Amino acid sequence: MRKEIFIIGNWKCNPLKLAQAQNLYRSIVSGLRKEAKENRTKQHSFKTKNKKRARIVICPPFVYINDLVTLNKKLGADLEFGAQNCFWEESGAYTGEISPKMVKSLGCRYVIIGHSERRLYFNETNEIINKKLKISLQAGLIPILCIGENKKDEETGKTEEVLKVQLQEGLRGFENEKLAKNLIIAYEPVWAIGTGNFCDPEKTSKVLYFIKQRINTKVLYGGSVNSKIAGEYLKVGFDGLLVGGASLKVKEFIKIIKNV
Questions:
Q1: Which of these is catalytic: 115, 124, 154, 252?
Q2: Whole-prediction pTM
Q3: Is 157 exposed, middle or buried (CB count within 10 Å of its CB: 0-12, 13-18, 19+)?
């Protein structure tokens, strides 16, 4: 039986122009097709079977989603799309906000909720995140809930305490079994994001167990993921990766996908 894994590329506030976003996407699709072709030849030669199927999800800035979904169809590619955020209401007088139904209508299947940068720079609380999760699920999206501790919490042994609160308050009001089928959790230690200091896979395995005890859903690792270490997170039980900066580097992103 094939195990389904997720590789989610979060482009954040990059790149600056539509043409650059389109070229980046074309390069990713081209690189994946080249890798797939080489892999099929290798499998045929050694009579092996790949038991893992990767769902590749790209989360670009809102302004590029429509154009990239159109480009995806034109290229005949099978990558999926997600948004990096959404609002907690369906519609209304909320200048500058984008609702989950709008995200869904663009062709997205996923939405990232509660990323540490949203919590830090935009003061998103667990209560706000809870509202966003509810409205996203109602719209038919699959939320990717980000949780993680900062450096001080990690150094003082409060990782599990912090994650427990984020899960309890973020998932308040949900039925556990129903939610587990329609939610992805991304564990991203805040101190690792964008620093190059990834969290040791063996150490993350304890966090993974802690999360799975509370909700049995797919759990991804994120935080300075690179191609050299990527496969180790799947070996300890993670269901995939949330990739930030490396998803903007085509060769590195393809290597990450190849190595898992």
A1: 115
A2: 0.93
A3: exposed
Q: Provide the strand spans (E) within the chain.
A: 3-10, 52-59, 80-83, 110-113, 142-147, 184-187, 218-222, 240-243
Report strand pairing: 142-147 vs 218-222.
unpaired
Q: How far apart are CA 153 and CA 254, in angstroms?
A: 33
Instruction: Give the DSSP letter of residue 191.
Output: G
Domain boundaries, the chain: 3-259
In degrees and rounded to multiples of 5, residue 159 shows phi and psi of -55, -55
Model confidence pLDDT, tens digit, residues 172-187 = 988 766 677 899 999 9
pLDDT tens digit sequence for 88-132: 999 999 999 999 999 999 999 999 999 999 999 999 999 999 999
Q: Nearest 5°: CA angle at 5, between 4 and 7? A: 145
Active site residue 115: yes
Question: The domain 3-259: what is its CATH number?
Answer: 3.20.20.70
**Catalytic: 44?**
no
